């Protein structure tokens, strides 16, 4: 990988880490289209490992807002979803995966724009957990389903519970990817090199949270994610 290519990915991961730490999700929606354009072989492993670092730091910071019961029901659904996502990654060709990635991003954008918000009941939490596990393992974008269910809570509560879910879920996904041969030394090497960018994004989020409310960050994530998905579709079709 060239220095320029790595720099582009590092900037995207840094911004995505800041978003993830600020609103509880966004690592995949923001960074995945960029990584797919530069080096699709790094997906989804590099971003899943990077998300693990961010979510761990956020869980420690926002631990007072944790609701372990609700997170537990979501994790029950995450298990079968993770297995299905790992199998999908094996069966789907690279171009198909890229188009699926773009479709997931645009689907999340549409739902977020419409303001649809299911109630955080056990059934909805488990269903969102399963959808998040499938999408997160296959494409590294598992945020939208869980974010929809939890979006009505206070900012700190959303961040802490989404981060706790994604922390455990990312560990599950890494295990599934390793079992199917989609997590190897090259991906791990790039992840290690990206850790400073991840940490920098987390640190930046502490300042961003003081000045930007959830609605403004939500608008930014929608715009950036839409542009990234459109570019990715254009690249695959052309």
Give a description of the structure.
The chain is an all-alpha fold. It has one domain. 83% of the residues lie in helices and 0% in strands. The relative contact order is 0.21.
Question: Structural class of the helix and strand makeup?
Answer: mainly alpha
Strand content: under 5%
- How many strands, what sense, and barrel or not for the largest sheet? none
- Radius of gyration, in angstroms, nearest whole number: 16 Å
Number of strand elements: 0
Q: Can you give the mean pLDDT?
A: 83
State the shape. globular
Straight-line distance between termini: 23 Å
Low-confidence runs: none
Helix content: over 70%
Transmembrane segments: 41-60, 72-91, 97-116, 162-181, 187-205, 217-237
Family: Belongs to the 4-toluene sulfonate uptake permease (TSUP) (TC 2.A.102) family.
Pfam family, one: TauE
Subcellular location: Cell membrane
């Amino acid at each position: 990988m060239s220095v320029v290519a790595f720099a582009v990915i590092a900037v995207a991961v840094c911004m995505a880490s800041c978003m993830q730490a600020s609103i509880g999700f966004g690592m995949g929606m923001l960074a995945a289209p960029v990584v797919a354009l530069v080096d699709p072989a790094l997906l989804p492993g590099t971003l899943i490992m990077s998300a693990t670092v961010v979510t761990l730091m956020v869980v420690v910071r926002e631990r007072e807002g944790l609701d372990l019961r609700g997170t537990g029901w979501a994790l029950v659904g995450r298990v079968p979803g993770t297995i299905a996502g790992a199998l999908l990654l094996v069966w789907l060709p690279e171009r198909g995966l890229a188009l699926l990635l773009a479709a997931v991003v645009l689907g999340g954008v549409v739902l977020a724009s419409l303001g649809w918000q299911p109630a955080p009941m056990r059934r909805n939490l488990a269903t969102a957990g399963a959808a998040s596990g499938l999408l997160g393992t296959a494409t590294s974008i598992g945020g939208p389903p869980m974010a929809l269910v939890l979006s009505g809570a206070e900012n700190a509560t959303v961040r802490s519970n989404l981060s706790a879910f994604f922390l455990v879920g990312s560990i599950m996904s890494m295990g599934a990817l390793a079992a199917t041969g989609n997590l190897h030394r090259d991906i791990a090497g790039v992840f290690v090199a990206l850790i400073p960018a991840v940490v920098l994004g987390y640190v930046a989020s502490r300042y961003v949270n003081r000045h930007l409310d959830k609605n403004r960050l939500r608008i930014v994530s929608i715009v950036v994610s839409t542009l990234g998905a459109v570019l990715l579709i254009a690249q695959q079709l052309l």
